[in-house]
Amino acid sequence: MLTTLGWTSALQTVFTPYAADGLVPARVSVAYGATFRVVTQDGEYLADSTGRMRHEAQGRRDLPAVGDWVAVKPSTTAGGRATIQAILPRKSVFSRKAAGTDTTEQILATNVDTAFLMTAFDQDLNLRRIERYLAMTWESGAMPVILINKTDLSDQVDTLSADVGGIALGVPVHAISAKHSNGLDALASYLVPGHTLVVLGSSGVGKSTLINRLVGSERLHTQEVRDSDHRGRHTTTHRELIVLPGGALLIDTPGMRELQLWSADAGVKEAFDDVSAIAAECFFADCQHGREPRCAVKRAVEDGRLPAERLGSFHKLRAEQEALTARQDVMAQQVRKKRDKIGARAGRAITRMKGRA
Length: 357
Description:
Blueprint: H1 9-20, E1 24-32, E2 35-40, E3 43-49, H2 51-56, E4 69-73, E5 82-87, E6 93-97, E7 105-110, E8 114-120, H3 127-140, E9 143-149, H4 157-167, E10 173-175, E11 196-201, H5 207-215, E12 240-243, E13 249-252, E14 260-261, H6 265-271, H7 273-279, H8 296-303, H9 308-356
Parallel strand pairs: 3-5, 8-9, 8-11, 9-10, 11-13
Antiparallel strand pairs: 1-2, 1-4, 2-3, 4-5, 6-7, 6-14, 12-13
Helix pairs in contact: 3-6, 6-7
């Protein structure tokens, strides 16, 4: 069973010390808040992470997520819960800044090979948003594939697809209609046994409809988008790993109304590879493409070789990353101070106890 979930000989080697401790490998298939469903060689179990794991976690990245391979201690009682003791090294991590004002990371999926970045031929088609998804995907370590859904709603499929391809350099772009099953044959090359995919996109772009087509049944509930703003209603409420009929694995995620990148410096550079290539010709090696003289990037905008909107998006994402990094540094300092205070308080308590002894 594990090989059908993507288990490899490399993972088996990494798992050796855990096996010596009597633990078994499992993959996290569903996350229900702090509770998880895991799949082992012997079947599925509900599982909780250990108190020690939760206590020692520096952030959300240190806790289990859908797609993770984990070492678990099975329950010794019928119907009991397994315990997640450790997380195996991840080959890719999809994360974003959690929605709202808190500076916290939200893990969307792990150990993904290919990401279907899904948009639609309606009001959701936004090049700037696609750039964000591409930056997140490149940063994760997975390979992006763009799906533009609802070809039946547009008479400009070729033109709009070309526009998307213009900002997604080297990334496959497929125009499809999940509702009518048009263009889905082009996805067959990604649906490889043991290959893990994730579907990411805004609510209403048709993710659940696509997954139902790939599964071959109405597994996920779907709803029509609102006529007023073409925005979708949330139909997926949690992340789930689904095994497709051909053996590929697909992670469904709730629709995202807001996508703020977490740590994506390398991802932004990869997503804006055209800007980086032109920047190599700037006079100053650390040119910010703003007020500096002899800037090749600004010259490319003036010449029409680089759209001004694309450079503006590049500046915006880079500025967001710099601001987020600054906030992360402040939070890290606050956490260190808090832990130092707790450690000092514990040290004084131990000293008093020794003195009384």
